[in-house]
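hey team, just a heads up i'm posting the complex here instead of the shared drive bc the drive is being weird again. everything in one block, sequence lines first with there labels, then the predicted structure for the whole assembly after. its two chains so it's a bit long, scroll down
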Amino acid sequence: MVEFIARFLRSLRRFLQFFTDCCRWLFCPPFRFGQIAEHIEKIGLQSVPIVALSVFTTGMILSLQLINIMYIFRAETFAGAAVAIAMSRELAPVVTAIVLIAKNGSAMTAEIGSMKVTEQISAMETMAVSPLRYLVVPRIFASILTFPALTAIANAVGVYGGYFVAAHVMGVNSVAYNHTMFFFVDPDDIWTGLVKAAVFGFIVTVICCYHGLQTSGGAKGVGRRTTAAVVLSTVAILVADYIMTFLFIRFLGM
Amino acid sequence: MAETIVKVRNVYKSFGEHKILNGVDLDIEEGKITAVIGKSGTGKSVLLKNIIGILKPDSGEIFFKDRDIAKMNERELLEIRKNIGYLFQDAALFDFMSVEDNIKFPLVEQLGMKNGSELSGRVAELLDLVELPGIEKKFPSELSGGMRKRVGLARAIAVRPKIVLFDEPTTGLDPILAESIDGLIDMVNKELNMTCVVISHDIASVFRHADKIALLYDGVIQFCGTPKDALASNHEVLKHFISNSFRCAASETV
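-- predicted structure starts here --
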């Protein structure tokens, strides 16, 4: 037990050191714009269809459930507002982040992890290049930019998914549905969601790259670290989401 | 008498309970080829990784021109590594980059070269040097083991380091390829005036080109001298090691 706690504390110290190093190097030139663009393409553009499909169905399910309940109170037109607010504040950033963890976070850990076990990371160090600056920092920049961008797209697609079910499946008055939506949704709902997405991007990338760089033990080690990175990233964004929601409600009253 | 470029003094290194280096002392003379021999798993690669600062010794000192590598922080290490090239056992080429980009990597990152035609010219020159002209556009997965090692060597000497560390450069190669790699080590030493440290199991090749032989056994350098001294030595382990290696080589030839 004592050994387990000691190992946990050592790992935590290593992670915190890595975390502070990442924060420090983010502000130090050179900024590798070519690499950042490459990662934006990989994380961002290539993920649009899967993110869109995920939030479209999420919007549809949410709308279906809400309309079903609100029918009891004859308030089904308010489902539009509920879907849009829930989507922009919570669902779009969280669902987008979870999809990106599965698609890109796991890939980051596996890529960096296999570089580690084949000594490519050591080779980089012998050539006086910091793997953190070369491999991690451009990915962090790309994630901080693409997570919110994809969340913005997810907002629109998810809201449309809700509208589609309301108007074409459940037979809700579409004009009233849209009217309540635009009346209740505030720009603050949208920007808080985008801020959350940027923070999620940072957290996911730091955790996944950290696990990649800590990989040892061949192909099995890569698999073990990838699983750990995906599980920890998912839990971390949910905890971070709660903390940010609490802070937004407490200090910004929303 | 050649000047000592690297001094290893009383270096200890363990991984958990497993002691690898147990007070290693070694002098590497400038402009010479020093071969480190010993059984598999005796810590020869660990010693090289300590010299370049990828691993830190538990205790002891490693001086590169009177500067203690063991006490350097990451920033100072990056600076010192500009003087040291490293050829990994499996070459450790970046598998996501072409041969050209692999060789350009240290030129761009360490020397800050940006001019495209100058870089391409330098890459072509280095590939000529390792007798692999015209393979710039190939990827590491398309190369044989021997070719990968040659490209690895081209990358290791690209920035003209003062010292090149070779981690088992001939392991896994047929005798003809192994001899050609030996020829390249000689060329790096004699024509490019770089100090070479070679880890090898190939005793015949060590006797052909090394100026000095060091035997690492039980975590300590048990013998260090010229090939002539090694042949004349009464050191039991060394005699056993040499005679066994020559016997194995002879049986392989038959």
